[in-house]
Amino acid sequence: MEQVKCTVPKALTKRIGLVLVMLVSLVLILVTQNISFGAEVVFVNAPRETWPKEKLTLGTEARLRYESLHNFNFLGYGNSVPVGKKRDDILLGRLRVGVNYKFSERLRASLWGYQANAWDFSIPLKTFKNPIFGMEDQPFEDRLELYKAYIEVRLLDKLKLKVGRQRLDYGDFRTFGLCNWTNTGPYLWDAVKLSYDFNRGDFIDIFYGRTKINDSKKFSLNHRHAFNGVGMYSSFKLPFLKATIEPFFSYKGDNTDKYSGEKGGEGRLNEYYIGARIWGRDFYNFDYDFWFSKEFGRRGPDGIDAYAYHLLVGYNFKNLWAKPRLSLEFTYSSGDDDPDDGDHKTFDVGYGVWGSWYGNQWSFFRWRNFQDLQTNLELWPVKGVHVVLGLHNYWLAKREDAWYLNPHLYRDPKGDSGRKVGETFDVTVNVNLSKVFPNASLLKGHFLSATYGHFFPSEVPQNMADEESGANWFYIQWGFKRSWKIL
């Protein structure tokens, strides 16, 4: 990997300073008004599902989000946007409703459905038709679909078998996880999963299944799946290091002979991933997280030789006002330095979440051929308030590979368009209304969140998209999540 100088331009520093002053002023106002908020930290772990105590529960999850994208959309940047408007104002809504029933301490079932809609979206959904699948596969709309539909059997006290439609969320969602930021996923699974839980929270899960295609016009049980998958994820405590290690393996395949090779020809998809994550939380006030995945196999006629890794180090200033947490992250996913040699070196995300947990909701990347040096400052000024300031510096891993905002438009096989993509700075505030108003029972389960961010373009968008202007992104979201015990 070539070394890259990571410097912040003076003009960017001035802009960030101005935003910091404005944000601190806002936080001080909130504190003096005795308002409290609450939210999730940047450091994230998927929760381990436990056997329910209740016999029968009803549940619902709802959300409504307004997004404003200025000077870009999901398919392009600036004046080179190929479809839709370069300023897109979108309203996204999603409703999940379901029932959970425990027949006994050995058998339980869950049945949930969902509806997802996108209004005022300038890009027609037919634009997202996947030529390999022969149908839409997009993250915006799905109508009257299955969210969960499974039966779980406790074979032994620590051994369980789950069969049916389910989420497979593990670790920091980079290896397996449903992208909850988007309206429809990916990935939802129709799978068989065998789980064994050891003491201290250690576990091993193995599963086989197929992933759902998100076509808004067709019910998912009436058409093909996207990929065939096999996976293993495990987690073990390392007490002598006060750490947790999580080895994993997965296979991602498709028997459709439509995957093109760099030298021509077509074939099937057979991707394999092996790797591990090791992390520690609040170790002498430090957080750390290291994740690595190696990808190999074949994509059509081409051999696969790719990899990705993520590093995070954070420190918690517990004795200071607002309990600030400062963290530094670096994410790398390999690119292809020769698009015509028959070797596929661009990392594919596999079954993981490619952006939403890491401040990349902008959709400028699909975790392919990029480097991201990220700094986060998190504040909890009063009970429940969580403010995140994020600064990203983006580069292509290989200048001969594409900028994966749109690989068909933004690729320079000669590498003359440069490597630096640009910087983003954003501010996020999340609100737990039940903590803001603890005595208001009607607000239990309600959440608000908002982000504003600005993108400062560098040589890649300037050369490939012929655009020197920056971009802005804003969203505000209301969410609701509750469950009710019936029996």
Q: Keyphrases for this structure?
A:
487 residues; mainly beta; Porin; 18-stranded antiparallel β-barrel; two-stranded antiparallel sheet; 3 helices; 7% helix; globular
Topology:
Blueprint: H1 10-32, E1 56-70, E2 72-73, E3 76-77, E4 87-102, E5 107-119, E6 129-130, E7 135-136, E8 142-154, E9 159-166, E10 189-197, E11 203-211, E12 228-238, E13 243-260, E14 266-283, E15 286-299, E16 302-316, E17 325-333, E18 343-344, E19 370-379, E20 386-395, E21 420-432, H2 433-436, E22 446-457, H3 459-464, E23 471-485
Parallel strand pairs: 16-18
Antiparallel strand pairs: 1-4, 1-23, 2-3, 4-5, 5-8, 6-7, 8-9, 9-10, 10-11, 11-12, 12-13, 13-14, 14-15, 15-16, 16-17, 17-19, 19-20, 20-21, 21-22, 22-23
Mean pLDDT over the residues: 88
Largest sheet: 18 strands, antiparallel, barrel
* Beta strands, count: 23
Find the CATH topology: Porin
Provide the structure class. mainly beta
Shape: globular
Helical segment count = 3
Level-1 CATH class name: Mainly Beta
Q: What is the C-alpha radius of gyration, as a whole number of Å?
A: 23 Å
Distance between the termini: 58 Å
Helix-strand pattern: HEEEEEEEEEEEEEEEEEEEEEHEHE
Helix content: under 10%
CATH architectural category: Beta Barrel
Domain unit count: 1
Share in β-strands = over 45%
| Uncertain ranges | 1-40
Describe this structure in words.
The chain has an 18-stranded antiparallel beta barrel. Strands 2-3 form a two-stranded antiparallel ribbon. The chain starts with 9 loop residues before the first helix and ends with a strand. The protein is 7% helix and 49% strand. The longest helix has 23 residues, at 10-32. The protein has one domain: Porin, CATH 2.40.160. The chain contains three helices and 23 strands. 38% of the residues are buried. A hairpin with an 8-residue loop joins strand 16 and strand 17. The chain has 487 residues and is mainly β.
